[in-house]
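Quick one, tokens below:
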């Protein structure tokens, strides 16, 4: 019983003290990482196309927060985050939970955190 109590106390202490926050990476509109960003005729901003010649998704480091400048000029109504183990976005999956914690969003930037220890690549869409 004492061991379980000590384990619970340790877990609470970790939660209260917080874990390392990791690095923050900024991808600004003119940066090479956003060279393929565009807004579709339907008004959806995308950090890159799904696929195609030389398509590169955004680097999405473990325990890192990415701050991405978008060109909508308004607060998006919806955020889509897709992840892949490959830089070209091969075999993507929709992201959720600790893989894509939405930190902040406004008319200029969206900040998303990868709270895992896995290095990934991401594609972000905003509507």
């Amino acid at each position: 019983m004492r061991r379980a109590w000590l384990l619970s106390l340790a877990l609470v202490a970790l939660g209260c003290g917080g874990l390392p926050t990791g690095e923050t990476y900024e991808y600004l509109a003119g940066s090479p990482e956003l060279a393929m960003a565009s807004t579709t005729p339907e008004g959806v901003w995308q950090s890159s196309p799904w696929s195609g010649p030389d398509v590169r998704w955004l680097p999405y480091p473990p325990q890192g927060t990415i701050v991405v400048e978008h060109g909508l000029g308004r607060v998006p109504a919806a955020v889509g985050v897709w992840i892949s183990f490959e830089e070209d976005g091969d075999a993507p999956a929709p992201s959720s939970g600790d893989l894509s914690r939405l930190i902040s969003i406004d008319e200029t930037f969206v900040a998303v955190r990868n709270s895992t220890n896995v290095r990934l690549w991401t594609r972000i869409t905003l509507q």
